[in-house]
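Lab notebook, bench 4. Still working through the backlog of constructs that have no structural model yet. Next entry is a single chain of 206 residues. Request: give me the structure tokens for it.
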Amino acid sequence: MRTLVNVLRLAMAIAIMVAIAAQLRSVLTAGTFVVWNFFGYFTIQSNIIAFVALLVAVVVGIRRRRRSGTDWTVQLRAAATVYMGVTGLVYNTLLVGGSTDIAFDLQWSNDVLHKIGPVYMIVDWLLFSDRGRLAMSRIWVFLVYPVVWTVVVLVRGATDGWVPYPFLSPSQGYGVVALYCIGIAAFFALLSVVVIWISRLRLIRV
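Model written out:
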């Protein structure tokens, strides 16, 4: 079972990186590439984090070492699950059919980054028990990064007018932006609580 789990994680990690590389190539070809903009998308950053978390999980799995909930590798995998979950939800509720300043025109890449990847990360965390129990007090670990990302995006939006997603655009008024931020922050916190609670389950032992 452990070997199968490692293969699945490695395959997903490769799929994520291939999807990012293909999208990057498409953007470069279109001549719309701005490095800080492309890598400024939460989608790209969360998928890179998931890629790293999956590779780390594979290495830990090969070594056959079970990690406690205080171990950084477990917390990294949990955080990646939260971020990918939010990526999937926000894209499939607020952004489908929307537009950005970069043409994310590869449908298969979009599916990997916004649908398949998020679903896999959540299922992986739910099913495979090679992680220790996380303490609810560690919820802040998962919230630091999205808070910093949001602050940077809002500062950029106020200074040079660039935002990665239309619902964060200051042109619609900061009151509306604030409501979106509060709603997404609440979902971050809720999903973090769920991920921490799931860490207590032992469905498939690996």
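Notes after review: The chain has seven helices and no strands. The radius of gyration is 17 Å. Flag for follow-up if needed.
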